Amino acid sequence: MNIIDLIIFFVFTGGIVLLGASFYSRKATADDFTSAGRSLPGWVVGMSIFSTYVSSISYLGYPGKAYDSNWNAFVFSLSIPIASWAAAKWFVPFYRKQTSVSAYSFLEERFGLWARWYASACYLLTQIARIGTIVYLLALPMNLLLGWDIRLVIVVTSVAIMIYSMLGGVKGVIWADAIQGFIMIGGALICLFILWFSFPGGPVESVRVAWQADKFSLGSFSFTTLGESTFWVCLIYGIFTNLQNYGIDQNYVQRYHAAKSDREARFSALFGGYLFIPVSAVFFLIGTALWSYYNAGSSSALATEVGGLKGDQVFPYFIVNALPTGLTGLLVASIFAAGMSTVSTSITSGATVVLSDFYRRQRGSLLVLRLSSLVIGVLGILISLALVNVDSILDSWWKLSSIFSGGMLGLFLLGFMSQKVRNVDAAIGVVCGFLVIAWISLGNSGIHEYLAIVFGTIIIFLVGFLMAKLIHAKKR
What is the pLDDT of residues 382-392, one digit of tens each? Predict the structure, then answer.
């Protein structure tokens, strides 16, 4: 690999680590670490929300999915406007009024400590799985770029991200995210234009051959199939997942608190969510253009080059082997930007949950935050190592996130929408929801694993709500 590409990559990633670590202060408080003292402008917070959402799952997983199949997974992005609008209207004002930075303190007020711990545990499991998924995707281009063993790359990459997450806290993470967001968008656009104009006939021909091969399909519109990834399965999954993200995900709630005013916080939710839609479309266009480039171009040798690669590996292969000198380093750096922003966010938010929901004391709080960051990062490394041989990382992540969600959105809605639901009603709902999620996750239910979050949420809400109604009716 050209030395220029390596220099560009290492200068960029080293600069990001130093930027995040530069916010380290011996006089910092736990509030500085967890909410940046509520001092950040809305555009910075919004760009951080966008960068967190993108991650390397989008940067490599979306092109890989479009290359292997079609645009069915893009339907997930179409659900984001619903969630970001709901966040700006209801969730942001609600959380800004709370004294605790934790998204789950409300559940303790409504149903007791068990509800807070349940949601917090589900969140931590989801973030550890997310870290593992993203770090694995980060390791793919580095494996091709440097020839290092992919497991070694996973460990080295994770340690670098953990350093600035532990030192800089959420303020360092958010500012680093904002800068990384611009790099990500620029890198993706450059790569798309190169793919299009490298194809015989240019962009129009590249799109035409992909269209004829049905590569732009959004999936089946059948209403009767729940065991396959149809348009409606992806849309419903996206609505529930994004409502959970924007409504009760500590990553987002922590950013709402970091904004300097309620107005700036509402703007950040809308800006970060809406920006993701066109950018995710660019990632799917890249995957479709890669398919045209390698499978419908004039050279059959190109198809032979990638014949043994999985879809997730084709984009990194193109970056390392087909881009001009200098751009390879920039694109690998932009992929790292996508992953670093999300992993650092997951680490700091996970540490915040450990401190606020489990430790629950002020003494030694900064030490607890940094030790928690270390433990969460190490667990993420172990998950990443376990994912090395999976076929589709996007499928694996969506299934894990749906299952680990535990239907906690249903518990939140139960507390938020009905004051008559008691502790025991909610507990019975959670048990029923958990059992349904376990049944779906075993794979023999005939229901797609993506829908575990949907059915888990609905069951928790309905059972809790109906229990309260029936008991109140009997008392009358």
Answer: 888 888 877 77
* 364 confidence band (pLDDT: 50, 70, 90): low
Confidence at residue 267, expressed as pLDDT on a 0 to 100 scale? 94
Three-state SS for the chain is CCHHHHHHHHHHHHHHHHHHHCCCCCCCCHHHHHHHHHCECHHHHHHHHHHHHHHHHHHHHHHHHHHHCCCHHHHHHHCHHHHHHHHHHHHHHHHHCCCCCCCCHHHHHHHCHHHHHHHHHHHHHHHHHHHHHHHHHHHHHHHHHHCCCHHHHHHHHHHHHHHHHHHHHHHHHHHHHHHHHHHHHHHHHHHHHHHHHHCCCHHHHHHHHHHHCCCCCCCCCCCCCCCCCCHHHHHHHHHHHHHHHHHHCHHHHHHHHHECCHHHHHHHHHHHHHHHHHHHHHHHHHHHHHHHHHHCCCCHHHHHHCCCCCHHHHHHHHHHHHCCCCHHHHHHHHHHHHHHHHHHHHHHHHHHHHHHHHHCCCCCHHHHHHHHHHHHHHHHHHHHHHCCCCCCHHHHHHHHHHHHCCCHHHHHHHHHHCCCCCHHHHHHHHHHHHHHHHHHHCCCCCCCHHHHHHHHHHHHHHHHHHHHHHHHHHHC
- The pLDDT of residue 446 is 80
Q: Residues 378, 237, 121, 136: what is their CA dihedral angle, to the nearest 10 degrees?
A: 0
pLDDT at position 462, please?
Answer: 93
pLDDT at 204: 94
Q: How far is CA 197 from CA 194, 200, 286, in A?
A: 5, 8, 12
Q: Give per-residue pLDDT as tens, 423-451.
A: 899 999 999 999 999 998 887 778 888 88
Q: For the full predicted model, state whether its pTM sits above 0.90.
A: no
